[in-house]
Each structure stands twice: as C-alpha cells, then as structure tokens.
Design brief:
eight-stranded parallel barrel, binds ligand MIG, single chain, glycosidase, 11 helices
Length: 754
C-alpha cells in the first residue's frame, strides 16, 4: 500500500473567493463563509460541480491573506487560519492567538489509495461531543466511530454504526470551543484518541475529498447556530405532531386503528396521532391500501378526523417487482430505479419480496416519488414515515457496483435516506397546499433537519436502552436535529410495567413523543398496564399537553437559532466536568427552563447534578442551589424534573388533542430567581405556512428581579392568540400577592408588579 502525505506547497493563487494551494500530491482549497466559518477542502481530484447535500450557503466572494516565508495566514475578526507551507498543514487559532485545532505536524492529511485521513493534534484534556446518533458516552474522547448508514435491529448500547451519519463534532479544550464538519458521504471515520498515545485524533473517509468546515465561534450554542446556518434549520412542525403519538407494527385493520383512537377518547387520555405500519398496504406495495383490511381509507380518515386524530403511514423505498403495480410500471418505463453499471435494475429483497429502489439522487425521481403521495393524502393522511432507507435490503449488503445517480453506492449511501426524506417532504408539501406535512425518517445525513424529524430506530425495552435513547437524542441535538423521537417502551422485547411508566414519563420531555412496538410484542397502549399505571401514564401525557405552549415556542427557537429542544448540559456548561460524569451525562435541558434527569425504572431515588444557577423541583417547588449533587426522590409518579430559577414556562389547560382550544387561559409560570431572564413566546395556527407571511403571534416575556416585574412586550405578527386571557402563576415568591392574577390577552405591552 502506498502512503502519500501532503507535502510542500508548490504554488498558490486566489480567484473567485477561493485560495488554491498546490502540493505534489494534491490541491487544497480554502473558502471563508463567515468570520467564524472557514472551509478547507483537500483533494487529488476535485469535482468541478462541488456538490453538497448538506450545505445551503455560499462562501464570501473575496478575502485577504498574508504571506510570509513559512506561512499563509488568513485572519477574520474571530479566527486565524495559519497555513504552514513546508509541509502543508492547517492550524486554527482564535483571534487572540490561542490554538484551537492543529494538523498533526508529522502526518497532516494523507492518502492510502483513495482513503484520505487527517491526523490532528490531541490537546491535553480535550473532550469531544457530537457525531449525532452515536452510542457511548457524551464525551467521545477515547472512542472511535464509523459512519455507514445501517439497518441496526437488536443494536446494543455499544453498537456502531447505526442508521444516521452526522460527521460533525465539537472539540472542547483549554476553555475554548471549535467545531468541525467533514462534508463527505463516503464511509467515514472519527477517532478521538481511542488507539493513539494521547497524541492524535483523526478523521477521514474511504474516498472523496477531505472537505471540512471549521467553526471557531466561542461557545457551543454559537457553534450550533453556525452549523445550522450552514446546513439549514427545521421549519415549524405541525402542532399535532407534538402531541402524543401511538404507533405499533401494526394495527392490522381500519377497525383496529379506529378502536385505538376511540379508546383514547373514551378514557380521556390525550393523544393526536395513530400510525399505520407496513400492514396497511396491499402486499407491502408502497402507495396502496389493503383492500380487505383497509377497504375505505377515506372513511377511516374521516372518522379519525371527527375524533381529532391524525394518521401517519409508513413508506419504504423498496418498490415491489410486479407488473400492473403502478409505481413499478412507471419506474420501469421512466427508468427511475438504481442500477448495475450495465443498466440492469438492481433487485434486492425486502418486505414485498423482490424490489427495485428509487434513485432519489435524481430530481425527476424525487418529483415522481413526491407526487405519488396523493394515494395517501387524498384520503387525508398528513404524516409520512420513511423507513428502511439506509437503504436496507435483506442481507444488508447492496453491492458496491450499484449506481445511484452518477455515483456508486459507497460514495452516496450515507445520503440515500436524506434524499428520500427530501423527496417525501418536497412532494407532500406541494400536494398538501398550504398545510404542513409531518415527515419522519430513520436514515439521515447532515442537513436532514430541513426536511424531516428522525427517530432512533429499533431499540429494546430495557433501562439501558432508555438511557441510551436519551444520549442519542441529546447528541443528535448537537448536530442540528431538534425533532427527535425514540420508541417509548422499546421496540423489541417487552418492558416491565415499571419501565413502561418511567419511559413514558421521560417521553413527555422528548421532542417527539411516540410509543411504538414490534410485531408479536405485548400490546403497549397506556391502558395495557393495569388501572394504577394507566392513571400515571395518563397524568404524564396530560403534563405534555399542558406544556405545549412552552414546547411550541421551544421549537420556534430551533427554527431561529438551531438550538435543539433537548439539550445536553454540555451545551451551556461545556467546561463543567460533572456534566460528563457517567452518572450525570444523560441529564438535559428541555428548552430554556427545564432540566430533566432520566432515571432507571428500578431506582426510586437518584443522585442528580444541578449545574450553575439555582433550581426548583417542578413537582414541589423545593429549592436547590446549583453546582452540587443532590439525592432526590424519584418515584414512578414523579420523574426528577427541575426548573431553573428565573425560568418562565407558559402552559395551557389539559386538552384531549391539539385541536381543542381548552379554557382559553395561557398560564405564565415564573420561578423566582436572582437574575433577569426572558422567554420568547411564539404561537401560530399550527397547521399552515401562513406564518411565513407574518401570521404569527410573538412576544417577549421578561422577568426583572430588581424592578420586581414581569413584562410582556408588544405582540409582533398578525395572528390572534388562541388564549383570551393570561394568568400569572408565581413560584418561590414568598408572600407576594398579585393585584391582577388574570389579565386580558391584549396586544399592547403588559407589566405586572411582583
Ligand atoms: O424490518 O415496518 O425501524 O419501526 O415497525 C423492519 C416495520 C421494518 C423497522 C422500523 C420499525 C418498523 C418496522 N421496520
């Protein structure tokens, strides 16, 4: 095997905003996207189109640099990239000159055949977070990972790779932060000092360019903001998708689906969504309905609608090979399937038997796929669940010579699921008029947040998987995904009743709240666990519905800044070692104000680390100073959930679905604290895109402890709030009595003296 290490610079030039540097082995290109984002791409063989599935921004047209005998230096107001000439190395510094990240002086970027790896200096005490859906600890130091989208049933809390690829991590050392996104869809590798002598970390890929974006903003939240500026942010989800979702593989008939929905209403357990898994189809043919078991889809959907239920149906990529089946015939006729290099359509086995796979890398195929959703939208489906899009075929080994677009499978496999989600989103958005579709996907690549929510695939009904699921959610949040769910209760196996109850209580604080289970498992609905547990589960789901105004505003924040709804404590407390302690690493903030501690179902007390600030237990208002470990009660009826002092949480009355108006009172809860705080409250119709035209209701709620006031700014936007009145609910303000506890929700400024 031949090893080539990037050597001495032979020449460079700057043109059209690109600084191009040549060595004997390769060429490097440097671009600036913003003062805090610099792109370096090193290749032996650049594609002139410079395609990216992830990036939606353009580089600056021009920038300055300084040349000295040893270096070429690029300085922005926030960052300095020092490019060493002999041999070629890339070293990043803060504007003040502190080293953020450096190539390994010896090995830099190098090639063994097509495989390209960048070796970098490992700093003392350097921690790493990110990479999205990866098992292991929050701190990824001393661990190594592979990105290769994989159908991973029966995965363990150690398995790697899983379903998704997010080649973006954040490094933390010396009180400094940086981010690095390797935009490359080949199989890729990240090693954070797993097998080196505390000297090097490394990343790279089996082929393609060493194409990375370096983020130099100080503060993890700012890096996430920059990363999602570059790769896009989610848009407002339909409000109904934030309600409770009941799924199963499968509800086998329209009657069973309706019966599930009716039971929720009869028992007055709030819910918004029921699912159809693969058995609703005729012989697993995508975009068909089983004529016997789902004879009148429109009638079923009308009945669901009358009960304020939405239906989400699954779609897989595999198109059954069967003449007379519309999608098969059209796909053959128009040549829409992935192929062997001799032009023959690739055939793999999945649920329908022999299948072809749409080539989602071509625009005309995505349009065709998107338009086919009328078979589901006409009867009234509004949510679309994209499964098996790693892509999965039995045997899990689609041959490497199969072509997608003009690429071979190994070059773009990691983006297939994302392109399917994109086709589903673009298509359904178009045919649903002004309504927001809900799209859910299992496989993903960086940037998928623009199209879809994700869930973490086939987990198992154990405590270890519940905790793993939370780490996956917290980690996906670092890589731009905010709308995330895990199968509550565990997909495989049967959870104990205690675990079901506990996991459901954690689901309240999961961005997507969906209960799902494998075929053959015991039924999982809230009423399957005994009268007492049913009451606990019901109460927890009611809590989710009370929190919806807060949650919806938290999603709005994601659309504006990229900050996820579920946030590892490492985002705000990046240099607090306790946050990375294995005992506390699963804790997270749910929005700005709420701290949640996942607790195993077998433990009824728990050690909790409360970070800087002071805190109140949500269920009791008991007060705690931060920066300490506290042991708290954790009965199954009361997951340890805390509110930050100064926290502002708007809540509503219990409703049975998001379509219900409730009592029309928005309860603005505020917990006393020493520091001023504010919360951006956001509301719109929850279903349409009218908010893009300014039809929303937004105002800032501010708490000022010095002036002892709570104030609401003038309303921005033209939407009329569904809440007629505002009620202020005080916590931790001893003896304070409000003159006016309830006020009319008028658009002008409102101030309340405390
Ligand atoms: O081969 O559609 O992860 O949620 O219930 C299994 C059946 C296919 C895998 C998904 C799971 C879904 C199941 N699917």
């Amino acid at each position: 095997m031949n090893l080539e290490i990037a050597g001495n610079v032979q020449g460079f030039k700057q043109q059209d905003g690109i600084l191009t540097i040549k060595t004997a082995e390769a060429e490097a290109r440097v671009y600036i996207y913003s003062p805090t984002i610099i792109r370096v791409s090193i290749s032996k063989n650049f594609n002139p189109d410079d395609p990216s599935f992830a990036v939606i921004r353009q580089p600056l047209a021009d920038f300055d640099f300084d040349e000295s005998s040893a270096n070429i230096d690029i300085t922005t107001p926030a960052l300095k990239l020092s490019i060493q000439k002999s041999p070629l190395r890339f070293n990043f510094f803060t504007a003040a000159g502190n080293s953020l990240s450096e190539d390994d002086a010896r090995f830099g970027t190098n090639w063994q055949g097509e495989r390209v790896i960048c070796y970098r200096r490992l700093f003392e005490g350097e921690r790493f977070i990110g990479l999205g859906e990866k098992t292991g600890n929050l701190d990824r130091r001393s661990a190594a990972y592979v990105n290769w989208n994989t159908d991973a049933p029966n995965h363990t809390p150690e398995s790697d790779p899983l379903y998704k690829t997010f080649p973006f991590f954040i490094g933390l050392h010396s009180g400094l932060t940086y981010g690095l996104f390797l935009d490359n869809t080949h199989k890729s590798y990240f090693d954070f000092g797993a097998s080196t002598d505390e000297e090097t970390s490394w990343f790279g890929a089996d082929g393609g360019d060493l194409n990375y974006y370096f983020f130099g903003a100080q503060g993890v939240a700012k890096i996430i903001e920059d990363y999602t500026w570059l790769t896009g942010r989610m848009e407002m989800p339909p409000l109904w998708s934030l309600g409770y979702q009941q799924c199963r593989w499968s509800y086998m008939s329209a009657d069973e689906v309706l019966n599930i929905a009716q039971t929720f209403r009869k028992k007055q357990i709030p819910a918004d969504v029921v699912y159809c898994d693969i058995d609703y189809m005729d012989d697993f043919k995508i975009f068909t309905w089983n004529k016997k078991t789902f004879p009148k889809p429109k009638q079923m959907l009308d009945k669901l609608k009358a009960m304020d239920f939405k239906l989400v149906t699954i779609v897989d990529p595999g198109i059954k090979v069967e003449e007379g089946y519309k999608e098969y015939d059209e796909g053959i006729e128009q040549d829409y399937f992935a192929k062997y290099p001799d032009g023959e359509n690739y055939t793999g086995y999945v649920w329908p038997g022999r299948c072809h796979f749409p080539d989602f890398f071509r625009e005309e195929v995505r349009e065709w796929w998107g338009a086919a959703f009328t078979a589901l939208t006409q009867p009234g489906v509004e949510g679309f669940w994209n499964d098996m899009n790693e892509p999965a075929a039995w045997g899990q080994n689609i041959p490497w010579i199969v072509k997608f677009g003009d690429k071979f499978m190994p070059e773009v496999r990691n983006a297939y699921g994302m392109q399917m989600a994109r086709a589903t989103y673009d298509g359904t958005r178009k045919i649903m008029g002004n309504k927001r579709p809900f799209v859910l996907t299992r496989a993903a690549y960086s940037g998928t947040q623009r199209y879809s929510a994700v869930w973490t695939g086939d987990n198992t009904g154990t405590d270890a998987h519940m905790l793993l699921g939370q780490r996956l959610v917290n980690s996906l949040g670092i890589t731009g995904m905010s709308f995330i769910g895990v199968d509550i209760g565990g997909f495989s196996g049967n959870p104990t009743p205690e675990l079901m109850v506990r996991w459901n209580s954690l689901g309240v604080y999961t961005p997507m709240f969906r209960n799902h289970a494998i075929q053959g498992s015991k039924m999982r609905e809230p009423w399957e666990w005994g009268k007492n547990n049913e009451q606990i589960i019901k109460k927890d789901i009611e809590q989710r519905y009370k929190l919806l105004p807060y949650l919806y505003s938290s999603f709005y924040q994601s659309t504006q800044t990229g900050l996820p709804v579920s946030r590892t404590l490492a985002i705000e407390h990046s240099f607090d070692g306790n946050v990375f302690d294995e005992r506390f690493q699963n804790e997270f903030m749910f929005g700005d104000a709420i701290l949640v501690t996942p607790v195993e179902s077998t433990k009824l007390t728990e050690d909790v680390y409360l970070p800087q600030g002071s805190w109140y237990r949500l269920s009791s208002d008991k007060f705690y100073e931060g920066e300490q470990i506290v042991n708290v009660q954790a009965p199954l009826t009361d997951l340890p959930v805390f509110v930050k002092a100064g926290g502002i949480i708007p809540m509503q009355s219990v409703v049975q679905s998001t379509n219900e108006k409730g009592d029309g009172i928005l309860r603005i809860h505020i917990w006393n604290g020493r520091e001023a705080n504010s919360f951006i409250y956001y509301e719109d119709d929850g279903v349409s895109y009218d908010y893009e035209q300014g039809v929303y209701y937004k105002r800032v709620i501010s708490f000022n402890p010095i002036e002892k006031s709570l104030s609401l700014s003038l309303v921005e936007g033209s939407f009329k709030s569904r809440f007629m009145q505002l009620r202020f609910v005080l916590h931790g303000f001893d003896g304070v009595k409000l003159q006016e506890e309830i006020v009319e929700n008028k658009n002008g400024e409102i101030e309340v003296k405390l």
